[in-house]
Amino acid sequence: VITTGLAPVRLAADGQSVRIIDQRRLPEELVYRDLASADEVIDAIRTLAVRGAPAIGIAGAAGLAVAIRTFAHAHPDAVGAQVMETLSSIGARIAGARPTAVNLGWAVDRCLAAARGAAESASTIAAAVAAEARRILDEDLEMGAAIATHALAILPDHFCILTHCNTGSLATGGAGTALAPVYAAHAVGRSVTVFATETRPLLQGSRLTAWELHNAGIPVTVIPDGAAASLLRSGRVDAVLVGADRIAANGDVANKVGTYAIAIAARRHGVPFHVLAPRSTIDASTARGHMIEIELRARDELAQLGGRTLLADGIGVWNPAFDVTPASLVSAIITDGGVHRPPYDFGGSPR
Amino acid sequence: VITTGLAPVRLAADGQSVRIIDQRRLPEELVYRDLASADEVIDAIRTLAVRGAPAIGIAGAAGLAVAIRTFAHAHPDAVGAQVMETLSSIGARIAGARPTAVNLGWAVDRCLAAARGAAESASTIAAAVAAEARRILDEDLEMGAAIATHALAILPDHFCILTHCNTGSLATGGAGTALAPVYAAHAVGRSVTVFATETRPLLQGSRLTAWELHNAGIPVTVIPDGAAASLLRSGRVDAVLVGADRIAANGDVANKVGTYAIAIAARRHGVPFHVLAPRSTIDASTARGHMIEIELRARDELAQLGGRTLLADGIGVWNPAFDVTPASLVSAIITDGGVHRPPYDFGGSPR
Lengths: 351, 351
Known about the structure:
The structure is a homodimer.
Chain A: E1 9-11, E2 18-21, E3 32-35, H1 38-46, H2 53-74, H3 80-95, H4 102-116, H5 122-152, E4 159-163, H6 180-187, E5 192-197, H7 204-215, E6 220-223, H8 228-234, E7 239-242, E8 246-248, E9 253-256, H9 259-268, E10 273-276, E11 282-283, H10 300-303, E12 304-305, E13 308-309, E14 316-317, E15 322-325, E16 332-335, E17 338-340
Parallel strand pairs in A: 4-5, 4-7, 5-6, 7-10, 8-11, 10-16
Antiparallel strand pairs in A: 1-2, 2-3, 8-9, 9-15, 12-13, 16-17
Helix pairs in contact in A: 1-2, 2-3, 2-4, 2-5, 3-4, 4-5, 5-6, 8-9
């Protein structure tokens, strides 16, 4: 299992809180916060204190475990149906915290299914949910390692990649998705270098990706988002590696806004464009990318900057958090299940 | 002549200083500064207090006029050759303030040529340079109006454009280049709306373009640079209009970093991609775009943000100010001379 020593999101041993790294405070401060209710978890997800599709799935499951444990303690004699109704209602609120990443709803659904299989008492249901939340974390760590193994099989021995947003430890339970092969290659002494877009507006590239790679001793160079096309033309990049927030059944990929432009430029310059994500990111119920709901984020992410007001009232803002890259531009989708090549068919075996 | 009421750069009536709008202070404050020496003008150009290819050409010429006037006053009896040598040496320093925009060297060269035609005394040479600097400004204003006329002939009656960086009043003597047809259309009551990228790292889009369009009553919406490709896919944009810092003889265009990615996406989605610039931006001595020197700017433009340090020492930065869009992606180059279509041949008449 890949580790950078970071534990971005964990259900506390006593099950009473979710401990997260507050990613809004990075890179200045590595601050942990303990979230003791569903509302605190929802707020942390909405404000991007915890972010990254896999990480918010883990956080959502852990938050549900904390909330139902609190309920079970307050209502030790509640009957199963009442507990399940409460669980479902809290789960729906957590799943609705952000719309685009499929992992959040998927993790909540897994906890609900685990609860249904549990005995009738509130405490056994709470225990089942907590166990499932821990399983989701453990599986995430294993999936990162599997993604790395599959990706390294198709990357050169030594490689230089371009990545966008943050898909490292901080975006997951700790192993990363698109950065998992970077960490794995570095760990065995391969030469690996990374170009990271700064990723406006919230700067996950410069604040998070550069920070965690630099801490791990991996050479990283930050570029403005607008420089990616020139970089791809320069021939210095062996592959683009990005994550995903939701992958449609046909292989269309929703990921951080700006991904689509990079994919177009990568195709123009013959640079492989790979999407790395756990299988849970594939949404079989969404046939094509245009059906994916794209979250629109707050005006202030563009209108305010470090205390400055850049935009007067009356100036419009269009601030989609994600975009959709069509499957035709994706060279491979690399999951813990293997390397998928177009045309994508996730029902079948990976090729 | 188009006017927004802004006078971004002017040679003072007494010829003793260059008055600029300090664009670093926008949008918070509209502050004018009087630059009384070549060194002050060079510093203003380097630090982007005055920016935009046409505007720095005007500023460079005006700065040269101020400097040679000061010299002439200090050395009233200097002979022509000595004055010309001084003029040439100051001109070379001004022309070297920023490497990519051709207009700076072009404006300095015009002033030197005007001086050569002047009489032998220091004061007549100084007067000739000042007159040429004023002519460059006047022509710039006329060129903006001509660019607007030619552009409106190929745009729909009512239109929505996407633009990048700032190509409005602030980038020129006042009429704009890529925004000139926007102002001209608005002035005659056509419906015109603008999407403006924020343009990292220095935010010329949100700080300057949105500010000046909003002040003029033109609806403007700011997007993160990474959202341009999605916007172009959406079908909402009739054309991309951008400026240029240098146009090679074959039609390759150096412009603000990020332009190339927008051009690739525009082609993919069938949106016309037009470059609007005065003829002085065409550099006949540069055959192709890859020969254009691309300025690399300071690390701190990415490493620092509103007082925050985003990048630790040891994290690399690649911060090119410009990129090159190949002529093959440019639908039309619109100058004051007319609408040029590919294959580009600026020796011939515009088609």
